[in-house]
Backbone:
């Protein structure tokens, strides 16, 4: 089929000439970029925490999909650990979202538990302390992991993968928006989740789940 | 309608520029520079694909949010302009499919709906206004084919590759668009 099989050629040429003459560069409204940037930043923050059991499942955390099915104590423990992590992180986000900006504060306790102010040049040293603390605990876990139940190790590794991804994303987001206290607080809380998980793993009796 | 941008220098087609590489690693400032460089061309396409300015702005936002999410997949096989146009067409078509499902659910209108949209067509000045308004009255598929082929200069095959629509369908849609526009413009 030809494009112009039923058209008058001159008429078609006139139309295509007019089309070619249309401007192909039209400046958007100035506020469009700000909206795009905000949407991207919000989507980055959303990736800092798993939002549902589906997210946890996709992250590799074992979450039973049929609540009515009878579960073994081991499965229940795994579910409990994943759920505890999810609820804790989700609660922190909900608390943060619902809090008045002037009263919002980190609720977790870490190597340096004071409220974060991104203007402070000490923020990197705070996170360096977290890094050191998690490294020490990770080394402890590495020494114990061969003597832990494989199921327990799998749950811990899944949760650590999720948390580490959140830390990476939030550090990237914070590098782009160093004055964003929400991201800084989420980063601090995520570090605290990692420390809590590693401490819990350190308390697990050897050979048990 | 917003003022036209002066022609700006374009990066080498097919090149992964420093800004693209930085943005692929999550650098928002680099992505903003990419936006500033390409926003005019993408916006022009959005204005013509969408039937009104508000929807064009939404489409523009969706396109650059999607581009941010998918930029990692850009390998420089085409120019970034073409890649962004591909993203634009896909976001537009996905949005149109959603609209059609909603309209079907609401049991309202079909493609003739768009013939009623002339009053909300993009407003411009000068001799372009009639054609711009007429383009806005086209059904979405025909509008996309006409804008991509006759305004943007892509071939049938390129449009087919961008949109996932068969080249023969693109030809039919373009024919339909031209016929409609000739009738509308007298």
Residues:
């Amino acid at each position: 089929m030809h494009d112009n099989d039923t058209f008058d050629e001159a008429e078609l040429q006139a139309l295509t000439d007019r089309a070619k003459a249309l401007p192909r560069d039209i400046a958007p409204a100035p506020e469009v970029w700000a909206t795009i940037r905000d949407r991207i930043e919000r989507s980055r923050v959303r990736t800092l925490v798993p939002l549902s059991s589906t997210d946890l499942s996709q992250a590799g955390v074992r979450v039973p999909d049929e609540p009515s099915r009878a579960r073994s104590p081991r499965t229940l423990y795994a579910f409990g650990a994943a759920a505890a992590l999810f609820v804790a992180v989700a609660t922190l986000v909900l608390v943060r979202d619902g809090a008045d900006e002037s009263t919002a504060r980190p609720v977790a306790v870490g190597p340096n538990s004071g409220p974060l102010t991104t203007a402070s040049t000490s923020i990197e040293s705070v996170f360096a302390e977290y890094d050191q603390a998690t490294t020490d605990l990770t080394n402890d876990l590495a020494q114990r992991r061969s003597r832990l139940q494989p199921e327990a190790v799998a749950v811990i590794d899944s949760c650590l993968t999720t948390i580490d991804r959140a830390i990476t994303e939030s550090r990237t987001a914070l590098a782009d928006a160093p004055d964003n206290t929400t991201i800084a607080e989420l980063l601090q809380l995520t570090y605290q989740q990692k420390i809590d998980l590693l401490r819990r793993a350190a308390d697990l009796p050897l050979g048990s789940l | 309608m917003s003022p036209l941008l002066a022609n700006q220098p374009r990066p080498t087609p097919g090149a992964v520029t420093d800004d693209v590489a930085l943005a692929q690693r999550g650098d928002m400032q680099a992505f903003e520079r990419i936006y500033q460089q390409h926003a005019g061309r993408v916006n022009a396409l959005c204005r013509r694909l969408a039937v009104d300015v508000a929807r064009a702005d939404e489409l523009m936002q969706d396109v650059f949010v999607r581009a941010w999410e998918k930029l990692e997949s850009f390998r420089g096989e085409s120019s970034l302009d073409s890649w962004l146009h591909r993203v634009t067409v896909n976001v537009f078509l996905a949005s149109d499919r959603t609209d059609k499902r909603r309209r079907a659910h609401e049991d309202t209108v079909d493609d003739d709906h768009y013939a009623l949209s002339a009053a909300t067509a993009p407003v411009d000045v000068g001799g372009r206004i009639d054609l711009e308004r007429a383009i806005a009255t086209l059904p979405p598929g025909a509008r996309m084919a006409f804008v991509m082929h006759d305004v943007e200069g892509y071939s049938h095959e390129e449009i087919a590759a961008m949109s996932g629509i068969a080249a023969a369908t693109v030809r039919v849609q373009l024919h339909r668009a031209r016929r409609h526009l000739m009738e509308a413009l007298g």
Remarks:
- The first helix of chain A runs from residue 9 to 21.
- Chain A touches chain B at residues 1, 3-7, 11-12, 15-16, 18-29, 32-33, 35-37, 39-41, 43, 172, 176-177 (CB under 8 Å).
- Helices of chain A lie at 9-21, 31-46, 53-58, 73-98, 123-144, 150-176, 181-203.
